[in-house]
Amino acid sequence: MATTPFTSSGPAPKIDTSVPHSARIWNYWLGGKDNYPVDQQAGEQFQAAFPQIAENARSFRSFLRRGVTYLAADAGIRQFLDVGTGLPTVENTHELAQRVAPECRIVYVDNDPLVLTHAQALLVGSPEGATDYLHADLHDPEAIVDAARATLDLAKPVAVILSGILGHVMDDDLARDLVRRLLAPLPSGSHVLICDGTDTNEELRAAQEQHNDRGPVQYRLRSPEQIAAFFDGLDLVAPGVVPCTQWRPELGTPTPHVDSYGAIGRKP
Question: Which one-letter DSSP state was computed for residue 244?
Answer without folding.
Answer: G
